[in-house]
Amino acid sequence: MAANQTVKIKGDELNFSQFSSVVFEKTPVALDDEAIKRMQASRDFVERLIQNRETVYGITTGFGQLCNRFIDPGQASRLQHHLIQSHACGTGEPLPEPVVRGMMLLRINALAKGYSGIRPSTVQALVTLLNREVYPVIPSQGSLGASGDLVPLAHMCLPLLGRGEVMHQGKRKPASDVLKEIGLTPLKLEAKEGLAFINGTQMMCSLGALAVMEAKKLLLAADIIACMTLEALEGIPHAFHPRLQQVRGQSGQMVTADNLRKLLQGSECISKPGEKRVQDAYSLRCIPQVHGASKDAFHYVEEIVLREMNAATDNPLLFADEEEVVSGGNFHGQPLALALDFLTMAMAEIANISERRTERLVNPQLSGLPPFLVPNGGLNSGYMIFQYVAASLVSENKTLSHPASVDSIPSSGNQEDHVSMGAISARKCRQVIENTRKVLAIEYLCAAQALEFQSKKPGRSTRLAYDLLRQSVPPLEEDREGYREIEWADHLIQSGQLTSLIQSRIGLKV
After folding, report:
1. Section 442-463 average pLDDT
2. For 177, 291, 312, 325, which has the most beta carbons within 10 A of its beta carbon?
3. Whole-angstrom Cα distance, residue 31 to residue 121?
4. What distance in Å separates the CA atoms of residue 426 and residue 343, rounded to the nearest whole number?
């Protein structure tokens, strides 16, 4: 997206490119005119409901198990303020800035759909915070994933009331001080507005959107790095034959095999069946099947997350054109919970097979290369302990891959008797993706080092990947601190430098 371009918030057209632009490039946002009209119509409907003293959940009643308690319209504003203050009770480390920016953007987008009964001016206050780079301090723990992310979203809007804390210009400050600094008056919430802010899935969806974008890079990087390993071990790419993939018909498998064939073009390091061995081990031979299955899972999750980014997720929803209020459960995080548990497992498998390839590189009984890829082994340990680190991360991933979505604990006096635990799914997914990236970074380092002992020329694309790493990580001739190497290889993957370098030349697909 072009620099200084504003993202128009319409409620139903937000995409990953815009999300990335706002979250990482801090592109400003603005409410679309039609969205403002829809929000105002919805707000006018709320006012009519109040004037008629109708019983409507969250507007003239209490919340959760207290939904049968009628609240006098004169107490409507006080009710909404109490809601925010009572729900702002999270714990744990604060969410990182990109997650918070994503939450703010997604909540603005959901409210812009015009079904929440909130005043446009109230939504605009959240827009102002986002554009002025004032980020609420939001604890990472406390959400059950239904009724949405109540606790983190309460912390998100608390500063609009002049309460809580924010991050501003790199410092943690009282929200009241920063509001004065930027000229924003604390809000006085009206009927339904507090509920409109906190009933939703925006924390888990922000984490999910970030996970999807990161996973896409890793799936491409895994194909590139796996081909470097295959060359270093003089593997047999005949297993990637297109006919073999077609007769199974799994799309991710076919895409992966096509990527691998492109990456290995021009390589002199590969072998034919029977030349070195009849077949490779599964971690080499089954790259299309394993990486491909994770790609298929990725596409399913990507679709679920994109839909949720543009969803109305609060309760009740107001359909002003039909003069109808519908109480339901759009806040329930089960679609995201299941999807993000799935993505967690899919990315853990990318790490699993990567670690097995690393073991084949460093183990002389499997590789035929110098022990642990270093001259003068014994005096030098080489990349021995790098495999330990990869194994540790893979083992941690296995623990984190237990699905959070199969759990539920009743809450709110058993009124909310099935919850999604989707926020936990999202947080675990983020950690597994970070671990997986580091496992791939370790394989990247080991594959590049193994190629030092290969007398034949690698393919053009894998050579580019090798040269990129060698700009900052020289070949290993004797032992040195390894953490800096891992950090640099990790950076090349996370920044997208590795994938964009190859992608621009041969057009890999996920």
Report:
1. 97
2. 291
3. 10
4. 9
What is the distance between the alpha carbons of residues 459 and 379, in angstroms, rounded to a whole number? 33
What is the rounded distance in angstroms from the CA atom of residue 487 to the CA atom of residue 241? 35
* Amino acid type, 342: F
Question: Are the C-beta atoms of residues 123 and 111 closer than 8 Å to each other?
Answer: yes
Write the DSSP assignment of 123-148 as a string of letters.
HHHHHHHHHTTEEE--EEE---SSSB
> Quick check: is 483 catalytic?
no
| Span 61-86, pLDDT tens digits | 766 666 667 777 778 888 899 999 99
Token pair 């034919």: residue:
272
pTM of structure? 0.96
Angle separating helix axes 483-494 and 460-470, nearest 10 degrees? 130
Distance CA(16)–CA(260), nearest Å, equals 26
Query: Residues with Cβ < 8 Å from 303, sequence gap 6 or more?
Result: none
**Nearest residue to 120 (alpha-carbon basis) of 190, 55, 26, 178:** 190
Q: How many CA atoms lie within 13 A of 276 on its CB side?
A: 19
Pairing of strands 171-174, 139-141: unpaired
- Any idea how long the chain is? 510
Give me the phi and psi of 231, to 5 degrees please.
Answer: -65, -45
| pLDDT 10s digits, 412-446 | 878 777 889 999 999 999 999 999 999 999 999 99
CB neighbour list of residue 94: distance below 8 Å, 6 or more residues apart: 137, 138, 139, 140, 167
Residues linked to residue 8 through DSSP beta bridges, in sequence order:
30
Q: What is the pLDDT of residues 281-331, one digit of tens each?
A: 999 999 999 999 999 999 999 999 999 999 999 999 999 999 999 999 999
Are 344 and 424 spatial neighbours (Cβ–Cβ below 8 Å)?
A: no
Q: How would you write 266-310 as a 3-class SS string?
A: CCCCCCCCCCCCCCCCHHHHCHHHHHHHHHHHHHHHHHHHHHHHC
Mean pLDDT of the chain: 95
- What is the greatest pairwise CA distance in the chain? 87
Express as a percent the part of the chain with pLDDT over 90: 89
Residue type for position 270: I
Q: What is each CA distance from 109 to 266, 487, 503, in whole angstroms?
A: 48, 36, 32
d(CA 81, CA 190): 9
Tell me the residue ranges of DSSP E strands in 190-323: 317-319
Amino acid letter at 404? A
